[in-house]
Structures are given as C-alpha cells and as structure tokens.
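Lecture 7 notes: from sequence to structure.
We start with the chain below.
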Amino acid sequence: MDKLTTLPNIGKVVADKLIQVGIDTPQALRSAGAINAFMRIRAIDSTACINMLMALQGAVDGIRWHSLPPEKKQELKHFFASLK
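Predicted structure tokens for the same chain:
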C-alpha cells in the first residue's frame, strides 16, 4: 500500500487528516478528488484553509501546489470563497 506522504504537498498532518476521513492511499485521494477530500476534512476541521485545498489539488495532480496553473488556482480560490 502506497503512503499518502509519498505525494507532493502531503506531510504527516494532512495525511493524518485524510486518514481520519477515510482516504488512506494516494489512489483513494485521486478517486475522491481534491475538493471532495477537502470538504471531508473541513467537516472535521473548520480551520482547513485555502492552502490545504491547493496542496490537495497539487497532490492529486502530482505536482507542488505552487506549480498549479493560474486558472486552477483561481478556480479553487472562488470555490473556497463560496464556503464563507
């Protein structure tokens, strides 16, 4: 079984949160998608922030979140803003 921490942007803290919400492998994260995974984490941790959402998207895409295309970053920012 692959570890979540083998993905870019996923350290122990985020991996632990993903496991708490039932996402325990890189494949499970890719299947769930970044937004779904973020919403599941947000349900148990109201402090989950935009940086976590970007990190999850980068992990799903296999890249550092800083390298996400500007359009994707903007899309995620709009989504996050809609949660308030």
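Points to note: The chain has one domain: 4-82. The two ends are 36 Å apart (CA to CA).
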